[in-house]
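User: Sequence for Telomerase Cajal body protein 1 below. Tokens please.
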Amino acid sequence: MVEEDCESEQPSLPNITDDPTNLEEPYQWPVIRFDVPPYRTHHFFHQFRTGPNPNNFLKSVKWSPDGSCFLTNSEDNTFRTFMLPENGNDYLDDSSVNDGGDSYAANLVVNEGESVYDFCWYPYMSASDPVTNVFASTSRDHPIHLWDASSGELRCTYRAYDAMDEITAAFSIAFNPFGTKIFAGYNKSVRVFDLHRPGREFKQFSTLQGNKEGQTGILSAMAFCPTHSGMLAIGSYSQTTGIYREDNMELLYVLHGQEGGITHIQFSKDGNYLYTGGRKDPYILCWDMRKAVDVVYKTKIIQFAKPSIHFFEAAHGVIDCYIDHQNTPTSGYHLISNHKASILVQVLMFRFQDGTVHIYDLKTGQWVSSFQAALDTVSGFSFHPFLPMAASSSGHRRFVVPGDGSEDDDLHLGAEENCASVWSFSFESAVESDVNVYKDGLKSGSEHENLNQNT
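Assistant: Structure tokens for Telomerase Cajal body protein 1:
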């Protein structure tokens, strides 16, 4: 592409001068006890309902790389950042959740113009360094935006144009591991923007080869190998996951086996395994990147809208999966799953409002435990980068059927619907001292302890 229409005033953009792989020793996670339900430390719901849309719900949540805050995205096309206070692990009892107020207000509110497709933090973001304190987003009919997470100002834009010379929106975005480029997924193509050259200059790569082989459809999810191996995985609504080289976007191989369009992909911390999940698909698939021929195992996510209904076998759903970063002989890796879904049968609407988060052992793919995170669909879950904490978001769109008398009920939401929460997990050195807190504080987790014993 020929350089043109770049921003006239050069914004302050992050700059990585050293090899980030040699900056410091990797952090060793504490040994988290996933057999003990976590307890809620902070809760937010009221400020999401102050706008003109009383049915505003959260779509996702992502913790910042430095662990200082987490970022939420909601149906009102708004981003909100919540800073973690110094007493971030104080216990929050059930009465505090239902007293009508939030733990504290959002530190920053940023409004997008249209529905948000994807967003991501700058990988070396630090709240103490204003230059790196940024995140990127893409929304319908808009270019990619780079936002200042301190002031909420728009730093710059990265614009792609279609054959009619009109702005086309990316469906997925991701920073490369070195934080120098933004990769954006479109329909059958990837555009790569230089972070330090905002405007309309980019490199474009087609995912469909000349012989019509490769990936088709909307490129809906991206993930880079965390070991800086130069490997990039891209999921598509065509039910395939493509593995590419980062430097020239050479297609290495295509993974087939998902029953629905890919909505989430994530590498294991050592980069040896890849996990994929899709919409209209009850399985999370584990792939060995050293072979990439067959699926290592398929974990079936079985949840119930009613005791006799296998939810994902009938639902139009989206599976999200999240992996904790610990790697210890006693606990190993774990995968967290949740989903966003609803069932439409003829004229009846059944909404899955179980609100549980399920934990699976990555070695075997077997279910380990679950806990109650909300009273409706869990739409997002994100681990703190180095503390035994996590943030969750919940909510779904409510449809009001005229004349059925449910208008008032649908608009009067409880404190644990369309909400966000911060959770603290028990870890090995603190189990004995906190055991009374868990027993007295989290009744909901034990109530659903046996939810999936048949999985």
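The CA atoms of residues 34 and 103 lie 25 Å apart.
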